[in-house]
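Researcher: Let's do a round of design. I'm pasting the structure tokens now; please hold your answer until I've finished.
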């Protein structure tokens, strides 16, 4: 009788062992699955739509190589402004830009504007790129071929005005045509005064063709 009871208890214990092993296996699989899910949720540095979480459009971060990607090859003021980021201002040198009169340093977290890819890393490089801008003729007499020396390719108004001679006497002389920001206008007098006096055209058609994108 005692032997039968012992055999019965032994059978019960042996029947329970597989059930306990299965439970341990299920627990281990659950832990492994949780770890895998946790890894899948690690932030990969991208935004929700999968794009890198960097500035886009016309804004570039300080230190970006794209700040010096292109050359600025005209004398109009560059569209480039130093601005802070969402956390405030930064002690960071962006580069140098031409403001229409001289090269200026830009410093902050971001550069905003269409010309932010045209900065230079040194003021010397900026001045060299705009060496002809500072010496533009500002007092050209009527008939001088330098009146038509360079093209005007931006939509800002030209700095060019017809003026009498040094004695105040007027002249019946056609200087050329200039862009006033809205349309091409004829200038007539003894001389042209302004930084853009070397960018006039000899005909109205030439002026309009140079500013077709502005109209």
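Researcher: That's everything. Go ahead.
Model: Designed sequence:
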């Amino acid at each position: 009788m005692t032997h039968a009871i012992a055999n019965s208890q032994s059978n019960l214990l042996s029947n329970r062992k597989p059930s306990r092993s299965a439970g341990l296996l299920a627990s281990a699989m659950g832990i492994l699955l949780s770890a895998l899910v946790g890894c899948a949720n690690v932030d990969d540095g991208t935004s929700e739509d999968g794009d890198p979480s960097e500035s886009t459009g016309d804004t570039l971060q300080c230190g970006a190589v794209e700040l010096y990607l292109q050359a600025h090859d005209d004398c109009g003021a560059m569209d480039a402004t130093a601005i802070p980021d969402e956390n405030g201002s930064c002690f960071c040198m962006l580069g140098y830009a031409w403001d229409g009169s001289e090269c200026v340093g830009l410093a902050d977290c971001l550069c905003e504007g269409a010309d932010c890819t045209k900065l230079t890393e040194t003021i010397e490089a900026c001045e060299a790129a705009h060496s002809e801008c500072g010496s533009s003729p500002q007092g050209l007499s009527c008939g001088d071929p330098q009146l038509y020396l360079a093209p005007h390719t931006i939509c800002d108004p030209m700095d060019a005005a017809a003026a009498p001679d040094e004695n105040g006497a007027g002249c019946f002389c056609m200087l050329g045509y200039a862009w006033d920001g809205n349309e091409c206008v004829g200038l007539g007098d003894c001389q042209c005064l302004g930084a853009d006096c070397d960018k006039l055209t000899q005909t109205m058609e030439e002026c309009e063709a140079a500013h077709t994108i502005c109209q």
